[in-house]
């Protein structure tokens, strides 16, 4: 899963040789944007703290020279209160033997919040390393009626100051030219004072001298916030936004999805027409087209999900959402930053778990980490879409809204509530109380999302999704196909079982029912029987422990084997092949709902477990998470099956 | 405790640092013979060789055997304390208010406002500074410039008032040939008629 989930442990090894520069700045100071612009290496740019938590390195080419740039996590000061800020302090500490000291530091200063940013700069200047200040958002300062004399600022700070306006190539060129020269960067005559009162006076004096006029709060932002941060309207709008979010994912994606599906249908027809070898035809038709195809169909939805998340993030709305939810998070005993982590988990639990690094309290971190995998990630989306399609007919409506979208929204909502409930439980029962740590969260001005950032987010998500399909899912799917097709049955065996070897549909149905996979599925039937699952679902569930999408691929394969022409039809018509319910429809509302709930709670993602292991440093927490989530999933699915079964 | 804003800036001389302070912090300009508290001690017997006050800065030169990285923190602390007692500073020459006004105006003309005037061939010189009133002569390309009044009031006067808040008036000397402000009437009688 790591590939399509954005930030992972990229750049754990360090690049050697050449000038090494560290990039330091407050969250939202345009640091990640600058990093991307300088190195061309893409990381996500976000509007809320905690987006950049992993260690990023990139190489900037200046003429023939190469400059290695390390993008450090956003920080407000060098007095660390979170693991994130600790990293920054450690890297910049020349006495720290574990981490190499950079040759120079680039400090991004947001021109609109200069007073606060200078406090950080003062601390960074105390390190004695060469410093170059990169002034960002000067255009926004001007728009909001603030003034700043860059030349005077440079004189007052005693270090180079380069103003870079988002994406301007001429500004960047000036900065790039300065990069390899870190040794000859102007040094301040005297580092700023350490005493807080004296430091304030230094900051004040620099600002006075640079003719800094505090920009008035952005009128537009203030007016929008008056509504969006309103306790009542804001909350209503938040839920309406989220609701619209899922409606859009469904309505807009459907035609695109149909287009992708028709391509795979055509391929399937071609295979049945032209490939005569039954084994090869089975492999191509069932494993590749039926299995992988059924997963790839969800590409439009993944793209849309990331489009909307990056739009919300880029515009600055996500921080508002986090702010609105802070009160709710407090109920769960957590703070607003934990919400950021949970929100990131909507895309994938991995960036969510990594975002917990911005939480200063270890207790909060573990509690959030335990909850994060319950958030509905994009991998669950594929399963949800498939099962929701089985549960609710596309035409059904709840009031003016599509019923499928409503069910999806409910699933997301339940996932989120469960995540918070879990965090609350873990917080409650994990040992003694620690000191209350300060919480601050920035509300950036509303900005138009940058087209490139949005495009990058979608592109890397889709690329990652396809890469994942090509690796984990392909391997597991092929493995499952083998299990589903073996052992081979001779014509004689088929005849003795009463199957006409000429009828290919009947043959493949018989083969699937008597495959090794069927044996495995039957073997674990006692576990899932109370939930209404038959052996085919069991195999899917087992396979989905590696990655959730495999479930969709498995069902796709089984269905394709039973009715190669209309796999979707085959799925809805699927019946129990044996046992007490033999002949009854498999995907009854009760079973489908139970499956949905099972997927809502179960931790079926090896990558998440791996990242959890890395972030907590032991196998204890991933084991706890897997265990509690499985028990929770089974119990909730059982309850759902019973309740829905009784109602229908 | 509110500390007076100040920060160091380098000068061409590595031993001299320009400590920028808000205008009007010290009621004097020019070389200093004695300063309050530790700054005075440092000037008399220690690492500080000379102190000179400008309208918006204190120039401090260190003695030959001292460097800013080592002596700097002590000087900073001493200066911060000394600035709290503006009336205990002793200038080398006693100064009148007129001298302060003159120095403030000179500082404005030497600074960015003066640079701006010089940048397009204008010239501004001090004619007089007394009784809280100052007069400058705008010459060069300023002579016939319709925007000269704007420069005078929105730039020079604003800057001067920052440095010398008691300012009553800043005006420009009338130039021969410079058009008077106000409407120009067409003559009713033809000339020479």
From TrEMBL, chain A:
Keywords: Membrane, Transmembrane, Transmembrane helix
Listed InterPro entries: Fe2_transport_prot_B_C, FeoB_GTPase, G_FEOB_dom, Gate_dom, GTP-bd, P-loop_NTPase
Location of the FeoB-type G domain: 18-185
Any Gene Ontology CC annotation: plasma membrane
SUPFAM superfamilies membership: P-loop containing nucleoside triphosphate hydrolases (SSF52540)
Single GO molecular function: ferrous iron transmembrane transporter activity
Pfam families: FeoB_C, FeoB_N, Gate
Stored PROSITE patterns: G_FEOB
Keyword Transmembrane: yes
Origin: domain of life: Bacteria
Protein name: Ferrous iron transporter B
The organism of origin for this protein: Streptomyces misionensis
TrEMBL record, chain B:
Biological process terms in GO annotation: iron-sulfur cluster assembly
SUPFAM superfamilies recorded: Fe-S cluster assembly (FSCA) domain-like
Chain's role: May be involved in the formation or repair of [Fe-S] clusters present in iron-sulfur proteins.
Gene3D superfamilies: Fe-S cluster assembly (FSCA)
NIF system FeS cluster assembly NifU C-terminal domain residues: 116-167
Top-level taxonomic group: Bacteria
Segments for region (Disordered): 173-193
Record protein name field: NifU family protein
Recorded GO MF terms: iron ion binding; iron-sulfur cluster binding
């Amino acid at each position: 899963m790591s590939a399509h989930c954005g930030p992972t442990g990229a750049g754990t090894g360090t690049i050697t040789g050449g000038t090494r520069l560290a990039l330091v700045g407050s969250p939202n100071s345009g640091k990640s944007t600058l990093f991307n612009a300088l190195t061309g290496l893409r990381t996500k740019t976000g509007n809320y703290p905690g987006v950049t938590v992993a260690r990023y390195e990139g190489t900037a080419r200046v003429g023939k020279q190469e400059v290695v740039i390390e993008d450090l996590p956003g920080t407000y000061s060098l007095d660390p209160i979170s693991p994130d800020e600790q990293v920054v302090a450690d890297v910049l500490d020349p006495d720290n033997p574990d981490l190499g000291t950079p040759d120079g530091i680039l400090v991004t200063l947001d021109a609109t919040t200069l007073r606060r940013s200078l406090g950080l700069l003062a601390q960074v200047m105390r390190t004695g390393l060469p410093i170059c200040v990169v002034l960002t958002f000067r255009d926004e300062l001007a728009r909001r009626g603030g003034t700043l004399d860059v030349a005077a600022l440079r004189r007052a700070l005693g270090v180079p100051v380069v103003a870079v306006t988002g994406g301007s190539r001429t500004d960047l060129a000036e900065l790039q030219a300065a990069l390899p020269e870190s040794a000859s960067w102007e040094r301040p005559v005297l580092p700023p004072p350490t005493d807080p009162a004296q430091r304030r006076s230094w900051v004040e004096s620099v600002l006075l001298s640079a003719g800094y006029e505090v920009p008035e709060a952005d009128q537009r932002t203030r007016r929008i916030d008056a509504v969006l941060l309103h306790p009542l309207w804001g909350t209503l709008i938040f839920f309406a936004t989220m609701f619209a979010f899922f409606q859009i994912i469904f309505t807009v994606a459907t035609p695109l999805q149909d287009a992708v599906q028709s391509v795979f249908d055509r391929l399937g027809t071609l295979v049945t027409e032209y490939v005569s070898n039954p084994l090869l035809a089975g492999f191509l038709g069932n494993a590749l087209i039926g299995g992988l195809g059924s997963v790839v169909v969800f590409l439009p939805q993944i793209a849309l999900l990331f489009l909307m998340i990056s739009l919300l993030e880029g515009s600055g709305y996500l921080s508002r959402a986090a702010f609105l939810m802070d009160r709710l998070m407090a109920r769960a005993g957590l703070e607003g930053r934990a919400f950021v982590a949970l929100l990131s988990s909507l895309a994938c639990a991995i960036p969510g778990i990594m975002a917990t690094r911005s939480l200063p309290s270890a207790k909060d971190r573990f509690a959030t980490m335990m909850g994060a995998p319950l958030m509905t990630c994009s991998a669950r989306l594929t399963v949800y879409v498939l099962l929701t399609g089985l549960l609710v007919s596309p035409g059904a409506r709840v009031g003016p809204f599509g019923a499928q979208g409503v069910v999806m929204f409910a699933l997301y909502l339940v996932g989120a509530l469960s995540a918070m409930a879990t965090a609350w439980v873990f917080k409650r029962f994990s040992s003694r109380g620690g000191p209350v740590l300060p919480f601050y969260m920035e509300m950036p001005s509303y900005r138009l999302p940058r087209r490139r950032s949005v495009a990058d987010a979608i592109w890397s998500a889709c690329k990652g999704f396809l890469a994942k399909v090509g690796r984990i899912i392909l391997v597991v799917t092929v493995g499952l196909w083998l299990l589903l097709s073996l052992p081979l049955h001779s014509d004689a065996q088929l005849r003795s079982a009463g199957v006409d070897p000429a009828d290919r549909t009947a043959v493949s149905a018989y083969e699937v029912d008597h495959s090794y996979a069927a044996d495995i599925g039957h073997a674990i039937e006692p576990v899932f029987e109370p939930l209404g699952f038959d052996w085919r679902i069991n195999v899917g569930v087992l396979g989905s422990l590696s990655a959730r999408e495999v479930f969709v691929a498995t069902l796709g394969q089984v269905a394709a084997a039973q009715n190669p022409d209309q796999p979707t039809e085959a799925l809805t018509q699927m019946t129990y092949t044996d046992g007490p319910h033999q002949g009854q429809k498999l995907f009854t509302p009760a079973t489908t709902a139970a499956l949905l709930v099972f997927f809502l709670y179960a931790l079926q993602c090896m990558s998440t477990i791996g990242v959890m292991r890395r972030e907590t440093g032991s196998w204890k927490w991933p084991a706890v998470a897997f265990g509690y989530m499985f028990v929770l999933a089974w119990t909730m699915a059982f309850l759902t099956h019973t309740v829905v079964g009784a109602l229908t | 405790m509110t500390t007076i804003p100040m920060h160091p800036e380098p000068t061409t001389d590595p031993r001299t640092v320009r400590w920028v302070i808000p205008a009007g912090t010290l009621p004097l300009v020019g070389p200093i013979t004695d300063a309050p508290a530790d700054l005075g001690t440092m000037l008399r017997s220690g690492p500080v060789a000379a102190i000179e006050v400008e309208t918006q800065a204190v120039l401090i030169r260190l003695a030959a055997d001292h460097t800013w990285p080592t002596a700097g923190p002590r000087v900073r602390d001493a200066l911060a304390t000394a600035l709290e007692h503006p009336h205990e500073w002793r200038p080398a020459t006693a100064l009148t208010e007129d001298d302060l006004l003159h120095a403030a105006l000179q500082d404005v003309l030497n600074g960015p406002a003066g640079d701006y005037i010089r940048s397009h061939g204008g010239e501004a010189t001090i004619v007089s500074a007394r009784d809280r009133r100052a007069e400058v002569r705008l010459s060069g390309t300023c002579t016939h410039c319709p925007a000269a009044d704007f420069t005078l009031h929105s730039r020079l006067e604003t800057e001067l008032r920052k440095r010398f808040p008691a300012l009553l008036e800043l005006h420009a000397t009338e130039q021969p040939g410079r058009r008077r402000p106000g409407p120009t009437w067409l003559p009713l009688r033809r000339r020479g008629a």
